[in-house]
Specification:
Structural class: mainly alpha
Number of domains: 1
Main location: membrane
Number of strands: 0
GO molecular function: ATP binding
Strand content: under 5%
Number of helices: 7
Subcellular location: Cell membrane
Mean pLDDT: 80
Order of helices and strands: HHHHHHH
Radius of gyration: 22 Å
Distance between the termini: 21 Å
CATH class: Mainly Alpha
Membrane topology: Multi-pass membrane protein
CATH architecture: Up-down Bundle
Keywords: Membrane, Transmembrane, Transmembrane helix
Low-confidence stretches: 261-270
């Protein structure tokens, strides 16, 4: 699955500048939720420790509160900015690719680019959240890495299955006896949901372990809150990855992107 993602990435964005721009966009998009965890850490500290400081000396809270709102504004601003810039970055990358695609094919290439970026963002965020856990509590972080790897393996199996299904749909078309549209869409949605269920189930194990360490005092309360929120977001991203990878499989089959060479040439799957 990972190799297919990077093959498509090189095929869509054929110049070094366009790849660097898209990679930077993906990294910033993925980093925003992780940065928001630091903002939540600041907020939880203000809530847990602020009342005592407020009662003793209100002026000591001025700087922490200002820093919190500044960090909050920066992270939310970055969140909206990268979404606004995404279309511009993709368009510029397509313009320098040198391909002359038909309008119908170009539409699928745009869909492929959006699905690819969403999948890569989810993967990068999974890595970032895992790194965040290592900064807070390494035993929980190790268990989280094992759990995330299990989910990614399951999602990769779903991807191969869905890609084969989508390629078969293209071969049979809509002639009599071929799978109905409802069956095709329903199968893709079920595959996506299976991956999401797997992510939720595996992450419960990590949550139970983290809760035990918090109850035994191994993890401070404020850090436990942040880890819970981060784990919830990580589980959500892995679920989003499962849904995104099935849509990516459909767009890959429609554009023939699986066979793209690094030069950007493509063979349309028949």
């Amino acid at each position: 699955m990972i190799s297919h993602l990077f093959t498509v990435f090189r095929g869509l964005f054929t110049t070094r500048a366009s790849r660097a721009a898209v990679a930077l966009l993906i990294m910033v998009t993925a980093a925003v939720p992780v940065a928001e965890m630091a903002v939540l850490r600041m907020f939880s500290s203000l809530i847990l420790e602020g009342p005592e400081t407020f009662a003793e000396n209100k002026n000591e809270l001025i700087l922490p509160v200002c820093l919190f709102f500044l960090a909050f504004a920066v992270t939310r601003g970055a969140h909206h900015l990268v979404r606004l810039l995404r279309v511009r970055v993709f368009r510029k990358g397509f313009e320098t690719s040198g391909r002359n695609s038909k309008p119908s094919q170009e539409s699928w290439e745009w869909a492929l680019a959006f699905e690819l970026s969403a999948v890569l963002v989810s993967l990068v965020q999974a890595v970032m959240f895992s790194a965040l856990f290592f900064l807070i509590d390494w035993p929980t972080a190790i268990l989280n890495v094992v759990a995330s790897a299990a989910v990614l393996y399951g999602v990769s199996v779903l991807y191969r299955r869905e890609l084969s299904r989508q390629q078969e749909y293209i071969k049979v078309g809509t002639r009599p006896g071929s799978p109905a549209i409802a069956q095709r869409v329903g199968g893709r949605i079920r595959n996506a949901e299976f991956g999401s269920i797997l992510a939720s189930t595996v992450m419960v194990v990590v949550l139970a372990f983290m809760l035990y360490r918090a109850l035994t005092g191994e993890i401070p309360s404020s850090d436990a809150i942040i880890m819970f929120l981060a784990l919830r977001l990580l589980s959500g991203q892995l679920g989003t990855l499962s849904a995104g990878i099935t849509r990516f499989a459909r767009a890959t089959a429609r554009t023939g992107a699986r066979s793209w060479e690094p030069t950007g040439k493509a063979e349309v799957t028949s």
